[in-house]
Amino acid sequence: MRRLLALALAAGLAAPLSGEAPEQRFQTVAVKPGDTLWGIAHAYLKDPTRWNELLEYNRLPTSDPTVTLPGMVLKVPVTLIKDSMLAATLVALINEVVARKRETPEWKPAALDMLLLKDDALRTMTSSRARVAFVTGEILNLDENSMAILKPRSKDADLELLRGEVHSAGPSRVITSSALITPKAGNTRFSASIRDDLSTVVQVYTGLAEVKGATKGSKGIEVKGGYSTEVPVDSEPLEPVKLPDTALFQARILGGDVFDKKLEEPGAAAKKAAAARGVPTPKWTRDGIVHDITKIGADLKALNIEPLSAWSIQISKDEDFARIMVDRIFEADLPIDLTRAVAPGVYWVRVAARDLFGAQGRFSQARTYSVPEPSQLPNVDEDRFHGHVEIVRPEEMEDYTRVPKYRIMGRADKDLTLTVNGRRMRMDEDGNFSLDVLLKEGSNRFKIQALDTHGRARELIRSIYYEP
Q: How far apart are CA 398 and CA 331, in angstroms?
């Protein structure tokens, strides 16, 4: 029977009716005109033959399961609902929060009270936060610049944190690329954050949590309130250390969460987030040498800063940058040409790195660079990649899927030669290309390389996370 209804209201707690068990919890379901009780049972219940139990909690105009119902809201006991149809609710959000439904690559703006089913994704941007309530009552708070996959009532965890930081109050289990955190006491409050090297830092404020490595067979350790541990990738958790007795720690003990923190302007928050995550500061020194600005791309590449999404470059005529003449951002994988940004002469130049979240670190010390006269410039066309290549899917630097077969898609100029991890890609007459790849469990990295007619290359990196 085709599914005729959609979840519409927040999945939360309903006040117990007379005679109900006090622990009974409900998920609300919106019924569209024309839907039947039998159809609802097949769409949402583990056992559709138990449709008559819904009569105990809802006043319906008929007890005939084949008769269409008017538009209304039904209460469905959580214990009856299929695991795949259990929902979490976005109960609070601040600023820019986006959501992605399972099996779809598109991110859309999240809305207050929207329902998130198993394997739906939630993402917070800079200066943004989200609070999720599960039907079982627990609360999870997603800090800024974070991404998570919702997994209510799944076997291993209730939420998978892919990046950023999450704060938990309740029995929710959190899994990351390197750790699994399971509360062991009813009053457990903890946070989990992922570092750039994919290690996980777990801080337990109250109660008790079991922390294991994500590798199969990890023994794990118990971390009590007031202690923290770190879990490196493919390793066991480190010995717990005591958390410093700060004002923030005391607030966590009293139940303060990420929403209690004062939000700053997006620019200030980005700098603060960058400092907290430790975006590297480029190690330039004032060496007294006047460098050639045509070589700045090679100078930046030699810094070996990873992970990196872009460079922020400022040019000034004075050493203290009181008069900034150029303030631009360049993608990390594109050539940097500043030869025509300012008039010929000698200038002070400083750079800052931007990580994959778009957060910017501190600027380096300034160096002097010379901008040559146009007549002195080499023929840059001889060294510059010529052509256009665009990746349509995955649209962003990373994607998530539960299907082992994935189609990479894009468009490019017809005269380019394209490969994916060394495998040749063919284009149609309009320059469209696609390639089906088989994914291994976990993160899969793909290098898309385009060569122009002179053998000059451009590389684009995409990551696809596959979970069976």
A: 16
